[in-house]
Description:
Elements: E1 8-10, E2 15-17, E3 20-21, E4 25-28, E5 31-33, E6 36-43, E7 48-50, E8 53-60, E9 63-65, E10 68-75, E11 80-82, E12 85-92, E13 97-99, E14 102-104, H1 111-120
Amino acid sequence: MKSAGVPSIISSDVVMRGNINSAGEIQLDGTLEGDIKAGSLIIGDKASVKGEVICETVTVRGRVEGGIRAKSVSLASSAHIQGDILHSSLSVETGAHFEGNCRHSDDPLSETSASDFRKSRPSPPAPAPRPVASSNDDDERVAANETPSFLNAGRSPLR
Length: 159
């Protein structure tokens, strides 16, 4: 992508809802609820993104809840990522938090790579089985519409 000149700075007191598209450089210090596409992106220490990040280069120092697709991804020690990363180059500093899957791609910005990556993700684990109550416990169970034992004199443990 071609640089558009002066970088755009979104300050820490800004909260945006919606998508951002820019061919140039963006420094995000505020909060974004939506997707962002840019040539270059810096996500500041106090910044957060809830959505997908698609860039040539991205440096994350803050929080991202969503996927990242970029040719070059750098996670600083203060980064908190909850989502998947599709990249050509990835660097992670000690202390960065990353929960998700990552995969190398020669062209992470193409829709073909993105859809292949989404399809290959492992499915979430099945819920743990719940224990089955034995039939001996049925006598002591209270029906949902029955008065609780502490209000029923016949069943109260304080008789």
